Structures are given as C-alpha cells and as structure tokens.
Amino acid sequence: MLVAAINTVEIHATQGRSSEVGARVPRMLEVLNSTTPCVAYTLTPGKNDDASWIVSGYWQSESQMQAHFAHPELTGFMELLNSGAISHIQFNSFVVHSSAVT
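Request: output the structure for the sequence above.
Response:
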C-alpha cells in the first residue's frame, strides 16, 4: 500500500504527568485507528526521556489526511495541553506522493 502523506504530533509531558499522558494517548490512537481511513497510527517513545512521544499517521492520500484534521478525537491533544498535562506539542504533515488515490 502506497503512503502518500504523513502527519506527526510530537508530545512532551509536563514533569510529573507522563503516566497520565502515556495512558491517554494510546486510547486516542485506538479511536483514530478504528474511525478514520488512516493506514495506521503509531506511537513511538521519545529517545531522550520517558515523557515524550511521537505520534505518526500514515495516509493513502493527502485529501484523506486533510479531512482527518477535523476529527473530534484530535481535540484530545489540545485538552492535554490546556490541562497542563503536556508542556509542548508540535504538529507536522508531509506529502510524500501527490498522485495517490483520494
């Protein structure tokens, strides 16, 4: 299966709240994996500490990825930020192949 687009979310938990974030994010990914046309969502621990993660989403088309950004489950990342559970979050998206199936 050809991957045409990738989105990433880098998350850094606030000191003392990594277990809270580490429990919530995998549940969010379960919902996203089962309710979106994403090829797969993965969670990778950060290399330098146990309070950071990289969430990666892989898409067959850029349009699927763009439409996904309106998914209600994604508000969970902002809720974690607003609650102070995460101190830093960075969203990225990349188009790898632009002529994929939409």
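The first helix runs from residue 18 to 35.
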